[in-house]
User: Which sequence fits this backbone?
């Protein structure tokens, strides 16, 4: 067994706050339920994660989500610290706390004058998507069901991207449909990232990205966060559950991203506490085993440093203020 403790993880997407409050889990106590808590973050060497507010589809839901988020992150027992600036990453390492980045999954609840967006930025909002797989006043999401809506960004959506990026918020393209994705690509000069999406060439699921999309994200110096949810890893039956999917089902997506883009695009966006994951990644304590598997199968320590955190950190460095 290789000692992987140096591979600290910056996880690009988790739904833990909502899920653990529903499960009435105590985040400070190790649990077998769900995917994330403080002891398991220690075991997996997870230094920080994007803790999503989902869904952010109305102003009421955003207020509810923010209230829950701040109660959770500022509960001293939970051992977390909010990350708002790049130098906060060094502070969490010094303090022994784990970092939490505020994210809205979907922008439906933001007003067209962007007042709430600017206020949310002040509260620490640092990454967000334009739509969570639905149609709103800014964009159209990728639908799980046919027929897919083929509309892209609205006029307000185009303004939204400019306003959010000017504030220093990183645009997340996971959950967008293809026309909306390409509209974002056209107008953005800054890096964009797909926080939690895999490669469609490996698993043919609409939530996974086409090769053209992956190359476009790479061209913008962005990242694609590997998603551990079974349906997006299951090549034989896309969308279906299979707890026996192994590390190779994850490695195949990484291999493909490296092949058509570069190692610099690969990041982690586990989607933990969002949906069911295979036993090999049953929770965030399993990260070191994934790193071992990759080390034994052709990846270098430097590659794993990039995948586990430095690639995504670079995106934040280029997009935050
Ligand atoms: Zn999601």
Assistant:
């Amino acid at each position: 067994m290789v000692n992987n403790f140096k591979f600290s993880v910056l996880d690009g997407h988790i739904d833990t706050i909502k899920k653990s409050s529903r499960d009435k889990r105590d985040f400070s106590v190790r649990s077998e339920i769900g995917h994330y808590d403080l002891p398991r973050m220690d075991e997996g060497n997870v230094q920080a994660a994007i803790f999503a507010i989902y869904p952010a589809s109305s102003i009421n839901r955003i207020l509810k989500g923010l209230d829950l988020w701040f109660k959770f992150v500022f509960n001293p027992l939970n051992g977390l610290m909010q990350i708002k600036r790049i130098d906060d990453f060094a502070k969490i390492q010094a303090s022994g706390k784990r970092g939490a980045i505020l994210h809205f999954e979907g922008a439906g609840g933001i007003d067209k004058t962007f007042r709430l967006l600017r206020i949310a930025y002040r509260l620490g909002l640092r990454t967000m998507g334009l739509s969570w797989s639905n149609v709103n006043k800014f964009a159209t999401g990728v639908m799980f069901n046919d027929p897919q809506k083929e509309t892209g960004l609205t006029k307000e959506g185009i303004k939204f991207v400019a306003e959010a990026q000017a504030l220093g918020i990183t645009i997340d393209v996971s959950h967008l449909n293809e026309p909306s994705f390409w509209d974002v690509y056209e107008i953005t000069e800054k890096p964009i990232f797909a926080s939690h999406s895999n490669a469609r060439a490996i698993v043919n699921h609409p939530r996974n990205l086409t090769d053209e999309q992956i190359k476009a994200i790479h061209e913008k110096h962005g990242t694609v966060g590997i998603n551990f949810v079974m349906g997006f890893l299951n090549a034989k039956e896309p969308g279906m559950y299979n707890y026996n999917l192994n590390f190779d089902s994850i490695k195949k997506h990484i291999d493909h991203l490296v092949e058509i883009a570069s190692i610099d695009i690969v990041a982690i966006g586990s989607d933990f506490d969002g949906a069911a994951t295979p036993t090999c990644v049953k929770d965030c304590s399993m990260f070191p085993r994934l790193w071992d598997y990759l080390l034994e199968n052709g990846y270098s320590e430097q590659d794993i440093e990039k995948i586990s955190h430095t690639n995504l950190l670079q995106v934040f460095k280029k997009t935050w203020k």
